[in-house]
Specification:
The longest helix is centred in the C-terminal third of the chain and has 69 residues, at about 270-340. The protein is an all-alpha fold. The N and C termini lie far apart (about 100 Å). The protein has helices spanning about 25-35, 40-55, 60-90, 90-105, 125-140, 145-160, 170-180, 185-210, 220-240, 250-260, 270-340, 345-350, 360-380, 380-390, 400-414; strands at about 110, 115-120. It is elongated, with a radius of gyration of 39 Å.
């Protein structure tokens, strides 16, 4: 961490993956360092509070001691909270400077006889906290982007769109739509592009930074696996076009990153929005048509699948309804045979004795069986009969259902 990270300028090109270093807020660094040892501040606050307490009446010595202890504890907590607040407000460049200052403090770093620097000072837990914040910012797309750089990037993005700059922080969908410049751009197309962009961005960033893994001690199998993955990554980068799937390990890592980092309602800060405006926009502009076509194709396929499912579901309903009506006809004919009566003469009696039916259902059954008998006996037009039955309340009847029931009746008449 002692090595200073090189500050690179912003380059507005399609291949830009440079990072904003962030202007160092020296005042914030000094503010944080002044809070390293809260003893002075605690003493000052405690003395002030204690002097106020002494002016109060009816306080015993025990009360005063207890109040002094409580005041000191609250003062220490207040100082720690302020220190956390100062650190949380620092950008990458400022935290980097703070790490450097902390490492140079004699109270933190001590040198052994062998000349090895160890972090065993009284503030090592504080340094650990600062380093954690450093690494958190380092993982971001734009470590320590300066406020001025953000304003410039967003102003440039605003020129090409009529969409207002989103309030920060915002969700990914809002950010991508702003960057695309068109309010009606399908989010699914933007998200496909963002996932590919993120995979490429991370691969190129890794190339630029170089491998940080220590290959020492790797087994031949691990070494071969990593080499194979590297080849896959290079092939993907060199041959990329929308629709080309990234290597499995990159796809998995990208998916996990999107789920953990970009799915929140507040995932896109002003800095991240500036990054998207600078780096994602050229990628989207170059491949926009391909992603829109992919989205349209996927949408059409989804609609066709839904239509097939709907129709197959409808066929299933029709099949069940036909089975029910055929069963009704078979019961009617069996009832007529058991009473040795012609089927058409016993319809009303059969329907009246049908169990588990309402008066409305019995009327429908009565009309259906009468129309069915008339259809078979007099060879009526099937479409006319179906239309009549629908008017009489059998909304789901079809010509196929009627003909299926007619077949049963015709077989019985033989």
């Amino acid at each position: 961490m002692n090595q200073k990270i090189k500050q690179t300028p912003v380059i507005h090109t399609e291949q830009s993956i440079d990072y904003f270093p962030g202007e160092i807020d020296y005042a914030a660094v000094e503010d944080f360092l002044s809070l390293l040892n809260p003893a002075v501040e605690v003493a000052r606050v405690s003395q002030l509070a204690a002097s106020l307490a002494l002016k109060a009446e009816n306080y015993s010595a025990v009360d005063l001691v207890r109040n002094a202890v409580e005041i000191q504890a609250e003062s220490e907590k207040s100082v720690l909270l302020r220190r956390d607040w100062v650190l949380a407000g620092m950008n990458f460049g400022t935290v980097e400077r703070l790490v450097e200052r902390l490492r140079n403090l004699d109270s933190i770093s001590s040198e052994s006889e062998e000349g090895v620097v160890s972090e065993q000072g009284p503030y090592r837990s504080i340094l650990s906290t600062v380093l954690e914040r450093y690494r958190e910012l380092e993982r971001g797309p734009l470590p320590g982007v300066s406020p001025e750089a953000v304003k410039v990037a967003l102003a440039e993005a605003k020129v090409r769109t009529k969409i207002p700059i989103p309030e920060s922080p915002c969700d990914l969908a809002t950010a991508l739509r702003f960057v695309s410049g068109v309010q009606t751009t399908p989010h699914a197309a933007l998200e496909m592009a963002f996932n590919d962009f993120l995979a490429i961005f991370r691969l190129r960033r890794a190339e630029k930074a170089g491998s940080e893994d220590d290959a020492g001690g790797e087994t031949p199998w691990n070494s071969q696996q990593r080499e194979a993955q590297s080849v896959q990554e290079q092939v993907f980068l060199q041959n990329f076009a929308p629709g080309l799937k990234p290597p499995v390990h990159i796809a998995r890592e990208t998916r996990d990153l999107v789920e953990s980092r970009w799915r929140r309602s507040d995932s896109v800060s002003s800095e991240s929005l500036a990054w998207l405006a600078i780096d994602f926009y050229p990628f989207w502009k170059k491949h926009k048509q391909a992603y829109l076509e992919q989205h349209a194709s996927a949408k059409l396929a989804s609609e066709k699948k839904a239509e097939v499912k709907r129709k197959s579901g409808g066929k299933g309903v029709e099949a069940r309804e036909q089975k029910r009506l055929v069963g009704l006809v078979k019961d009617w004919l069996q009832y007529a045979d058991s009473h040795e009566k012609p089927p058409n003469e016993i319809i009303e009696i059969f329907v009246s004795e049908t169990k588990g039916t309402t008066e409305l259902t019995r009327r429908k059954y009565n009309g259906f069986l009468m129309r069915l008998h008339d259809y078979v006996a007099n060879e009526r037009d099937v479409d006319h009969v179906v239309a009549t039955l629908r008017k009489e309340g059998m909304k789901s009847i079809t010509s196929e259902m009627l003909q299926g029931c007619a077949t049963v009746l015709k077989e019985h008449r033989k």
